[in-house]
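Q: Can I borrow your eye for a moment on a structure tokenisation matter? Would you mind producing a protein record, from residues through to fold? Write it directly below this note and I will take it from there.
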Amino acid sequence: MFRFSRPLRWASSFVLAFSAIAIAAPLSNFHGAIFDPSGAVLPDAQVELIENGVPVASVATDAKGHYSISWKLEPGLRLRVSDRGFRTIEKAIDPQAHAGDSLEDIVLQLASFSDQITVTSTGSPTPESQLGTTVTVLDKADYQGTRDIQEGLRLLPGLQAAQTGQAGGTTSVFIRGGASDANKVLIDGIPVNDIGGTVEFANLASASVARVEVLRGPNSALYGSDALAGVISLTTARGDTPLPLFTYQSAGGNFGTYRQEGSLSGRQGKFDYFSDYSRFDSSNSIPGDKYHNGTFAGNFGWSFSPTSSLRATVHHDQVASGQPGAIELYGLPANAAQVNEDAYYGVTWDDKTTANWHNQLQYGGLRLRSQFSEFAPAGTPESGYTLGAPVTIQGSNGYAVSGQALESNDGPPYPYAYPGSTDKDFVYAQSDYRINPHLLGLVAFRYEDERGYSGGHASSIDRGNYSYTFQFQGDVLNRLFYTVGSGLEDNGLFGIAGTPRASLAWQVAR
């Protein structure tokens, strides 16, 4: 007969109680398959269960990419999947949703594709390799040390950025020979185009931009007649540091040129924030050509749950520049200036209602104000004309001519002003559903109210536009990837029109 001392009896009781709790904890079997973005299985991928940051169970996938792993369900349990050359994915395990037998098929994204997942063409995250359209992605590294958006765009094939004059000079972008007003330009999903379709790229600073996607060609049903040449989509940076991050930088040069930029960003719990202000000033190298651009950008998000979030963005710039005109011809600058004040803002609700069903609702607007002013005719008035300074002009063939240019002085009364205004408000709703692993369906609706004028209120326009989009995206045997859909527009300018689009991509090798 054995007798236990009191401390030993306590220890035995503790061991028995702990064993009972361990036995009582429910077990769940997690099994499934691991795939790459093309749908091919991944053998020898590492699958781990993480508890309080520590791996408690681990297996490797077999030759068919399958895995099976069992463990007791407890709060804080997470599933982590990793493989060489792919981005590691980690997801929380809900004890109530994963009790018993749980199927978890997971797709790993290629690490080298982390910046090549695009949503511009299809409206849902898609690797470039699965697109039948030409999309180029530029990130912050492509804009390091730059001042304006066009500095990165001018390097892309099939795209030309034309700038007149020096810093602040009118800048237009042409995609594959299309007109400069045939491009849809977006900032965080908010259209930037004025009523006529033009965009002044000289006013768009590259500060605060984290990503630029460029779709070349009219190959997306999402944008219709607004994107006959292509789409340029800008995304503002987000805060991602647990402590507030403050940055400041400045630079200067000749001709009274200096640039400053400061930003504040971070993440606190479910809230992330980013704000940035930049200013560029230059006198440029010719008289009457001073330029400045002050731009503020903000991006603020709130995650209500892992599947639902609300995000607000704002972009505001104030730009002023001298307009010296044809100074080499007249020998002196025109007495003129151009001022702009532009604001773009939006609020987006994003919700993944189920594992296969995603919904998005967005309200946005823009307010564009511009005015060209000529305060007095330049030069010396003489017999109904304005006489320029003596100049000598030399042609490319070496021929030179000297003289003074004449400009008719019977123009409008001075000072002369040419104002412009564009107001737009829109609502966009999108719902997409993954019918099966090889097919995704999308429907969308957009209403846009636009008002504005060019030159004065006498030329004002007020109209509403509606558009409906239907689209299917999928693949055949993980080799042939397709996107087919159509938009139906009811435009206040040209009436009702359809905009069908289709694209195919064949992946020769995985």
